[in-house]
Design brief:
2 copies of one chain form a homodimer. With 341 residues, chain A is α/β, with parallel strands linked by helices. The first copy, chain A, is built from 16 helices and 8 strands. Chain A has 2 domains: 200 residues, NAD(P)-binding Rossmann-like Domain (Rossmann fold, 3-Layer(aba) Sandwich), CATH 3.40.50.720; 105 residues, Four Helix Bundle (Hemerythrin (Met), subunit A).
Amino acid sequence: MKVAVYGAGNQKLYVDQLNLPEKYGGEAPYGGSRMAIEFAEAGHDVVLAEPAREMLDDAHWKVVEDAGVTVTDSDAEAASEAEMAVLFTPFGKKTFDIAKDITKHLPEGAVIANTCTVSPVVLYYVLERELRRDRQDLGIASMHPAAVPGTPQHGHYVIGGHSSSELDIATDEQISRCVELAESCGKTAYVVPADVSSAVADMGSLVTAVTLSGVLDYYYVGTQIIKAPVEMVEKQILMTLQTIASLVETSGVNGMLKAMNPELLVRSAKSMHLLEEQEELDAAINTLADLDDEVTQWINKGEIRHTDLVAAQALAKELKNLMGGKAAEGTIRRCMRKMFE
Amino acid sequence: MKVAVYGAGNQKLYVDQLNLPEKYGGEAPYGGSRMAIEFAEAGHDVVLAEPAREMLDDAHWKVVEDAGVTVTDSDAEAASEAEMAVLFTPFGKKTFDIAKDITKHLPEGAVIANTCTVSPVVLYYVLERELRRDRQDLGIASMHPAAVPGTPQHGHYVIGGHSSSELDIATDEQISRCVELAESCGKTAYVVPADVSSAVADMGSLVTAVTLSGVLDYYYVGTQIIKAPVEMVEKQILMTLQTIASLVETSGVNGMLKAMNPELLVRSAKSMHLLEEQEELDAAINTLADLDDEVTQWINKGEIRHTDLVAAQALAKELKNLMGGKAAEGTIRRCMRKMFE
């Protein structure tokens, strides 16, 4: 497969700041350059586009080239034959600019795949005009490493499949191409809904994992021990998570914490300790009961701003009924981008 | 203070099913009858309204009456002089019926306070017609025990103050009355926004506590270790929690888990272990990595239904701009009730 990787990865961040070699193992170069190396070692034709030579030192560039990767500073050149273009580029506008640019150069039917720096759905919306007008053949998918490439933790890729809103941004064949590329390097390929991939693969997956452990704990205690109806337990889960999310949206993390009062929460949550083993609850209570002075002051400085606590999907449905599905699309899209950008 | 408590509490649930005496300590009667006893012992004039005599056995009824509580099966009679009416009544319609009924009988300026079985904001909306038309003097607040009254864990009350949407459903004096009643029994009174009280005081506080510990962990790792911009870290938190909440809303807990793939999440979240001590993350990874066959099958049977992932507050704002604030109120209200009822 002909593959272009955009962005070699900032080795100063990985090595000096995050101290990956000691903390996680593996060796530099990490990031996009490591992905390129692994693709080349799996037998693919790989070009790595990186205009900022200083991202890697000379020894690391030699490792890249010795693996058979072609290095270029021209995004267009890297795109010209790529069946798969993988963006390991900086967060924000830079990634959008590169993506827009390469839509002009990619061959018929190519896939543009994000990694951790943007959601595939946002990438689709940013490129939508180009894709609909000029390049209906291109697909948007992801090759999200969900760990830093080059660390032993990187044993898999998260691939955005058909989205939960039925928006299709890549064909089955294009999604399969991502799976094939991942598996050819000996990585596990997880296909998840495109719009869910960020929540399970980005840095915030820490929050997702901890939250899900709490959801599972409560679902068990609620339905099996307290024997409350499933609908009631699910409504409580929706309510608590929607409340936290909306307060973070309007008031930031410290405003949310001020509204929720960790001290109170410790007392309330202790009452839900109904089993011998509720490891996540014990850990949560320890954390919330033991906030240091600095954190407490930061919470006290929080400001609770106007928040209309609503069930988001119910509101989206009302909007569609009100405006008609087609007309509501633009609004829903803007509000989706508010979440991801 | 003259206080009416509605609902004595189901002792079969507390003692036989939840096994509170052994698990938590304290002694029966638990629940509304224990609240009534404690209010009476603090020197208040207390009436307990309970039409279902079988909720307590004779020995427990004797404890209630020995404390000086007047017992009645008439809701109207209990209301007739109550400055404070506390609803320890069943979930759902029953509570609304009792609340509607007593608005006809309560004296000038009384407060109707929910406990764990309904949110104060929902109670307000259900009673709104009566309150606006006939009884503008009544206030809606809460005396939420956030633990089963009668257990040693019940050292506090959660009181719904001014809401985060600036909807005022009780006066300052009425909120203070709740605080005074709580403190007169030696309990700590926590005043939180009325619309947030359910999330920090109901059964779901287990989920809230665990989630917040994950948010704090990630906020620290994101801003201090990875040194990502605060806005980006907060956006990730919003995105992950809004995604989970919305998937639960459309697809239930197992549909959500199917979309998010716990196995994948374990792998992603492990990469966010960047400190020695991330107790909640360790616990979460243990839980998610060790799902038993039954749970796995239940997740596999989940169905991912149509979900429009949007930032809820952005959508509420768009709706208000579109319809005008006044006209949007009804829609926002309906979508709030979808979350709480």
